[in-house]
């Protein structure tokens, strides 16, 4: 029996690794809405035939599944799974339907898609003036932070209640939203951190949206975690060296804070700070100019000392994965890995005069849940976006 | 935590094991996903009651087995054997070829026989547990196991010696 069992176990190892929870919930919700719609339609027929005024008794018509052309309602929106930025004239392939140039779209866990018209587009009308208008999602998916075109600064919005808070300081977009912006929203929606890489001249900022105060942070570092009280921030830098930095005693805003920084001996792509508040996962990056896209093992790091706590090879990814980006922590043991499978060209194959693609084609990002104890990866879903900075996942951003 | 969250937790904890069984039952990744999703939908519809029972995964597993059998009964036998195993001499120790041959042989079994092989020899279920999961008698499990192994030996003659002697008598108190 052992022999047959071993063969069957090996066969079972070929089983697909997908996460069916969200798909099942979305299917149930969709069927429920359809059933209610049919019931409502049947009632209308009956009522019309009977000539009664019982239309009042009909259940409220359900909101149809959105086709992607609707704006974010003022309130009553469920938690988000992700958001993505859209540019509408990619050099090849199609743009998403109902595309709005440079706009953000949010997608709920049940699959509804909405434009966020209040968020400043990253492209001025007429495709003039490129900037980087960021959007962040809280870890529970229930709040978003974005640059409000109307207010001229950042806002946080609770998707269910529609309540908004606005940063205490105006930030003209032409002087603040340049290079690659990185935005982090705390779990409770109270704090927002903005950073830019490369940094140029302005500092990074941390807003306390509730008490309406702001403090400066060192420029160029990507915010990857904030303690629940907002007093300690974890930052990462991935170029030219991989570094981690922790600053505590952030408040009052005039406080210099206590800072600990560690330069790591090799290059990494970092996850957000883990839910335990004292671990960062990272993927070793062995890439060089002539050998790009060389991702190594997954490591767990102590952000204060840079010490490796664990190293595991990642197993279960598609064989053609070329790049891995670590994002939302799904639990204490599982982190989301966004992967791409693109051919990476050595620097010598890229012509010096090759123009930069401002509006690159949309490509597929495949999300896996990676168990950081075992390295096992299971496929979750796929996303379409023009680049890794065009996707926002719940929780702090990773670096890179 | 809302009801969907507890369902998500349930799925996260059990979907991998259920998917492996679904894959062995169907022999196809897409059919396995369809099968498991239809079962999870059933579970979700009853979640308000199931979330309070001790082992909701037992319900899911039983639903998986029965859904598979009823689907297979209703569907026209459309499965075609995949590519033939490589036409070269192979040792029964060559694990890749053994897997290939065994997968084809399994796909050649009728649904109830395939189910009994998966439950008895992959999940290591007793005859009694297998009978409960399949809603049949222990005698049926015994006979289905016998026929399934005989058919596997016929479909995969190279593995016949390995498949001999797998039928054991269980004693019930």
TrEMBL record, chain A:
The keyword Membrane applies. InterPro entries: Quino_amine_DH_bsu (IPR011044), WD40/YVTN_repeat-like_dom_sf (IPR015943). Keywords: Membrane, Transmembrane, Transmembrane helix. The chain crosses the membrane at residues 38-58. It comes from the Bacteria. This is Serine/threonine protein kinase. It comes from Sphaerisporangium flaviroseum.
UniProtKB/TrEMBL annotation, chain B:
Belongs to the sigma-70 factor family. ECF subfamily. Residues 11-77, 105-154 form the RNA polymerase sigma-70 region domain. This is SigE family RNA polymerase sigma factor. The keyword Transcription regulation applies. PANTHER family: ECF RNA POLYMERASE SIGMA FACTOR SIGM, RNA POLYMERASE ECF-TYPE SIGMA FACTO. Keywords: DNA-binding, Sigma factor, Transcription, Transcription regulation. InterPro entries: RNA_pol_sigma-70-like (IPR039425), RNA_pol_sigma-70_dom (IPR014284), RNA_pol_sigma-E_actinobac (IPR014325), RNA_pol_sigma70_r2 (IPR007627), RNA_pol_sigma70_r4 (IPR007630), RNA_pol_sigma_r2 (IPR013325), RNA_pol_sigma_r3/r4-like (IPR013324), WH-like_DNA-bd_sf (IPR036388). The keyword DNA-binding applies.
